[in-house]
Amino acid sequence: MLDKNNIIVIRGRAASFKSSLAIAIANTFIDKKVVYIDLEGHSNFRVNKNINIINSFQNLNIKNIINDNDIIVIDYIELLNYKKDDLLKLKEYVCGTDKTLVLVSCRSTEPKKSDADYYLTLEDIADLMIIPDKKDN
Predict the structure, then answer these.
(1) Distant-in-sequence, close-in-space partners of 22: CB < 8 Å, separation ≥ 6
(2) Whether this model's pTM surpasses 0.85
(3) Angle between helices 116-125 and 84-94 (to 10 degrees)
């Protein structure tokens, strides 16, 4: 398990390989119970047999999923419509556990979804922030 890295945030623009990086991280934990919450619909990813894929919003109980797994990947967090308070509660819930939560976040250019306060909260809750932005040519 990652030492003191309970929440990893992978944040970047569209097509910056955030989901690929999240899958690569998940695939490294072959001896852990891993869940990949695929809210974006990446059914073409190859994952290890120990990774359970959830690709539905129906009956999605994040706290139960956290309790039942060692590594939890949510791709991508904005699709859950979490607000700043929800993110802070999520951090509080995960802290003090041996769980690792990987949140994939897509920075949007839409004014409504580009809430600076929301993204600053992601930075505040992250124990490790990864920003794999690709360069425009």
Answers:
(1) 10, 36, 73, 75, 102, 104
(2) yes
(3) 10
Q: What is the pLDDT of residues 44-61, one digit of tens each?
A: 778 888 999 998 878 889
Q: 72-111 burial, b if ≥16 CB within 10 A, otherwise e?
A: bbbbbbbebebebeebeebbebbeeeebbbbbbbbbeeee
With beta carbons less than 8 A apart as the criterion, state whether 132 and 17 touch.
yes
Chain segment 84-121, per-residue pLDDT in tens:
889 889 988 888 788 999 999 987 655 555 567 777 88
Instruction: Please state, in angstroms and rounded to a whole number, the distance separating the CA atoms of residues 111 and 64.
Output: 33
